[in-house]
User: Which sequence fits this backbone?
């Protein structure tokens, strides 16, 4: 029996509400607003209350996909990563670093944004990294 | 962000959310707060309970407007005219804060000259708001006590977005409503980590903490830290520029992480065409989004529930995200995916955890220098936090000490939106969110409870227009703009006035962004999602 | 008080008389619901004393229902205050929990908390720590909140509630936090009763449907009030419905272990 409440921050809007993700035996069972969260003080909106619901959706991508003969097909991680790195390298060599653009994200963490722009700038050598701050 | 940065030196929300509770007046413009930021509405409604006056200006009469003391319905895209009208009233009534203006600001004279020439009757005609209401708005905002401005995408998603924001900054400086509790110019961030993505340098012109890529010192600092001989000094391309770069054959590869530009960006048909054309489209996501369907390779990352890290909320508060369950299927941690590709690409990265990455961020970013995972336990920390002993910064520009030195007035004249209605396209279309959904709907539409609340898209039209087109609730209607055509369900409501229609953008099968105008603000590069011209046709 | 609670939980876990104990733990700078199991460190245990004693409360019985649905044969301990114990009695009556599968660990509420709640019985029958004050000291019998609203003229009362309901952002937090709400099919999602898809909610249907539903259930814990993002005084509304139940039928939810609700007396349809 593995029942846990994990304190985290909501993934939807910019309010920054804290809640516990309630899980039982590895499955998310609910969301409980954190009483002492500085922004929400034990309250949530309808999206927050249901923030656990999409996570284990059947529609989640479970394996990498690669386009072969026009179709996206499941492949191993090794194949997907190799393909990506090799093609990026080819394009960088042939067309220069500024032929590659990066769309980082307002949805992922700081750490993930940081590491993506670091790869863009230090790895590929382009400043063409942006995200949908404008939307 | 560009507008506030030009005025104050920093593009972030000036005050804290809790701070709004103590305001005497709150002026909300271009924000459907109760729907899009319900927990900000909490603070606004508490202020109302405490006796604060709530003023709302919005082309669509949203829920917070129902709860306001004065609601004005200005026409889409006429924000600058309305704000200039308000400032004219403030000057006429000699309600400006001369002391604040003199000591804390610059470029006031040019601004004042422009405002003095504003004709209230003309403003009233442009905005569709009575002179009396403009006066009441101005006098209430400028009265004794603290006044806060709250705005959102209704202000920024315009070709005049930066002008709109600068005008709000003008209004706050004119009345000295800055740097004190209950005041400020407060943009509400639409996404959980927009602030963080900006802070982290996911922008084409800056590294972390807004350190410019064109400055030699920052450039060298990051090159040294990242172990490369040099870093590019040329400012990169924004998303709209990347899209046109693809068309011009200059951009050959795009790596999209956790975004869905096919649904979120204006003129969707155009975006689809570009992404179909590109040589290499890499999409890193948790669902097969409309954008992922076009990819050459799709890399399954993990949701917020499966990862450790940090988000930054709208009030600059850095907060912890913690892993609750194991990754679904064979999905991988997003940071690990990037690191693995970087290593294969030939640039070595050896982080062992998100915390290790965060340590590097703190080392290279002065405004984050004092933040550690350990210190984030409890309430999180609001940047700037320059040292381990620093408690963080709930209010920016205290006592009028702006990040850029002095607050900068901008003389701004009203300009109409890029596309205006005409005989062929006689309706103003504006877009936004509904309470149960979020952005492009990839997450919320897969949530049983949220999908139950609102399962399909719709168009809001005024009863008078519904009568003209002989449509009833639930009927289907065709909508055309110069860029595309969609069909959706009719919802008749007085929330929109005659001649204006509204659509939420969560529904990819009736994607309103096939209609919207990609014309963008020349400085912020924010597209004009809030205004375009359309025509309607009964199906 | 916390030492006695710890001792009791230790006893229960080490004897193996319970599979686990649902209580509060302090982690990452916040108190939150936790399941303590054998061998777990009880150092993190807390009673939810943030600014004032007992001011951080969570619907622990709701956690218990989640566990009981998955593990119906196991026995669990649960930390209860007076209201939580009323909740247990109600949940036994409504067949959501079985009395022989639950071991309550009772604590009384401090006077401040009891006064703020206008709680009629801020202590459980079965008490591990704390003491039951006499009726006078508890100060809880006075229902000033309800009296104040009832003191207003009818039109003023109407405007008051209309303004309150107009604020609703339809988060369903009042239902989702409620330890007495467990239905798989909820009346609030019945489209014949409540329309969906727009804000504000149907006034007053949405809130009155819920209030009617709470009439023989509400155990006056106040968690709905605390969870409401727009500060609608929901507890006040349910206090009033509870008062009607008490006045008309002499019934108070959760006050008696073997209670039967007057609203369930009709039972199933008689066979023809």
Assistant:
């Amino acid at each position: 029996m593995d029942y846990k409440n994990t304190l985290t921050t909501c993934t939807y809007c910019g309010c920054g509400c804290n809640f516990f993700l309630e899980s039982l035996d590895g499955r998310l069972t609910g969301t409980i607003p954190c009483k002492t969260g500085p922004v929400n003080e034990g309250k949530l909106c309808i999206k927050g209350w249901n923030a656990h619901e999409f996570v284990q959706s059947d529609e989640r991508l479970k394996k990498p996909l690669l386009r072969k003969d026009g179709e996206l097909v499941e492949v191993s991680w090794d194949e997907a990563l190799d393909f990506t790195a090799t093609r990026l390298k080819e394009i960088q060599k042939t067309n220069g670093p500024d032929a590659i653009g990066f769309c980082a994200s307002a949805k992922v963490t700081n750490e993930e944004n940081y590491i993506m722009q670091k790869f863009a700038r230090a790895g590929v050598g382009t400043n063409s990294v942006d995200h949908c701050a404008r939307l | 962000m560009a507008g506030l940065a030009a005025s104050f030196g920093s593009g972030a929300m000036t005050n804290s959310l809790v701070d709004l509770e103590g305001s005497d007046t709150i002026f909300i413009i271009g924000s459907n707060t109760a729907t899009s930021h319900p927990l900000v509405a909490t603070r606004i409604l508490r202020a109302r309970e405490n006796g604060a006056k709530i003023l709302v200006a919005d082309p669509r009469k949203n829920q917070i407007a129902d709860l306001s003391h004065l609601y004005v319905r200005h026409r889409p895209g006429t924000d600058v005219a309305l704000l200039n009208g308000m400032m004219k009233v403030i000057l006429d009534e000699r309600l400006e804060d001369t002391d604040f203006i003199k000591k804390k600001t610059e470029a006031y004279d040019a601004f004042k000259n422009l405002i003095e020439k504003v004709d209230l009757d003309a403003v009233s005609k442009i905005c569709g708001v009575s002179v009396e209401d403009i006066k009441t708005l101005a006098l209430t905002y400028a009265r004794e006590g603290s006044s806060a401005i709250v705005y959102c995408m209704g202000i920024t998603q315009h070709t005049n977005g930066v002008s709109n924001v600068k005008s709000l900054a003008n209004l706050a400086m004119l009345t000295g409503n800055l740097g004190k509790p209950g005041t400020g110019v407060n943009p509400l961030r639409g996404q959980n980590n927009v602030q963080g993505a900006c802070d982290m340098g996911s922008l084409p012109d800056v590294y972390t903490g807004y350190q410019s890529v064109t400055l030699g010192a920052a450039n060298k600092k990051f090159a040294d830290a990242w172990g490369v001989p040099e870093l590019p000094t040329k400012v990169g391309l924004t998303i709209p520029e990347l899209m046109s770069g693809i068309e011009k054959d200059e951009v050959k590869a795009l790596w999209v992480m956790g975004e869905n530009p096919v649904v979120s960006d204006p003129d969707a048909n155009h975006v689809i065409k570009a992404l179909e054309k590109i040589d290499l489209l890499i999409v890193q996501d948790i669902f097969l989004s409309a954008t992922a369907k076009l990819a050459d390779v799709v890399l399954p990352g993990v949701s917020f529930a499966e990862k450790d890290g940090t988000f930054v909320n709208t009030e600059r508060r850095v907060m912890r995200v913690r892993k609750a369950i194991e990754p679904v299927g064979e999905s991988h941690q997003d940071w690990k995916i990037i690191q693995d590709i970087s290593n294969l690409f030939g640039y070595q990265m050896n982080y062992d955890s998100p915390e290790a990455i965060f340590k590097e961020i703190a080392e290279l970013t002065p405004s984050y220098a004092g933040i550690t995972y350990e210190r984030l336990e409890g309430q999180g920390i609001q940047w700037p936090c320059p040292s381990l002993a620093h408690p963080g910064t709930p209010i920016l520009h205290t006592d009028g000490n702006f990040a850029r030195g002095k607050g900068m007035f901008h003389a701004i004249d009203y300009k109409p939106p890029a596309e205006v209605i005409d005989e062929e396209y006689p309706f103003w279309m504006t877009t936004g969110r509904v309470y149960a959904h979020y952005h492009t709907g990839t997450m919320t539409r897969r949530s049983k409870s949220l999908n139950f609340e609102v399962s399909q898209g719709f168009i809001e039209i005024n009863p008078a227009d519904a009568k003209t087109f002989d449509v009833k609730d639930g009927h289907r209607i065709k909508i055309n703009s110069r860029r595309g055509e969609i069909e959706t369900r009719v919802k008749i409501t007085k929330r929109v006035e005659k001649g204006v229609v509204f659509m939420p953008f969560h529904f990819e099968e009736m994607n309103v962004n096939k209609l919207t105008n990609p014309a963008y603000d020349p400085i912020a590069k924010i597209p004009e999602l809030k205004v375009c011209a359309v025509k309607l046709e009964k199906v | 008080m916390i030492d006695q609670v710890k001792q009791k939980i230790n006893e229960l876990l080490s004897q193996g008389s319970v599979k686990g104990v649902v209580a509060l733990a302090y982690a990452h700078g916040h108190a939150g619901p936790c399941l303590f199991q054998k061998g777990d460190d009880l150092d993190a245990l807390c009673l939810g004393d943030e600014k004032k004693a007992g001011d951080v409360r969570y619907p622990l019985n709701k956690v218990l229902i989640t566990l009981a649905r998955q593990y119906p044969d196991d026995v669990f301990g649960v930390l209860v205050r007076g209201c939580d114990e009323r909740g247990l009695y109600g949940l036994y009556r409504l067949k959501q929990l079985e009395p022989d599968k639950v071991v309550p660990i009772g604590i009384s509420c401090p006077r401040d908390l009891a006064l703020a709640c206008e709680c009629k019985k801020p202590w459980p029958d079965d008490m591990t720590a704390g003491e039951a004050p006499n009726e006078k000291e508890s100060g809880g019998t006075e229902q000033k909140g309800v009296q104040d609203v009832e003191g207003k003229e009818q039109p003023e009362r109407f405007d008051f509630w209309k303004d309150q309901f107009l604020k609703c952002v339809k988060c369903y937090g009042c239902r989702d936090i409620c330890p007495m709400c467990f239905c798989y099919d909820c009346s609030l999602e019945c489209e014949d009763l409540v329309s969906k898809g727009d804000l504000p909610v149907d006034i007053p249907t949405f809130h009155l449907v819920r209030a009617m539903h709470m009439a023989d259930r509400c155990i006056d814990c106040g968690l709905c009030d605390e969870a409401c993002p727009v500060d609608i005084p929901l507890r006040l509304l349910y206090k009033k419905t509870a008062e009607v139940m008490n006045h008309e039928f002499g019934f108070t939810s959760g006050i008696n272990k073997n209670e039967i609700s007057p609203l369930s007396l009709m039972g199933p349809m008689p066979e023809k």
Notes: The interface with chain C takes residues 1, 3-5, 7, 18, 20, 22, 24-25, 29-30, 32-37, 40, 42-46, 48-49 of chain A (CB under 8 Å). The longest helix of chain A spans residues 77-95. The helical segments of chain A are 46-49, 77-95, 110-124. The radius of gyration of chain A is 19 Å.
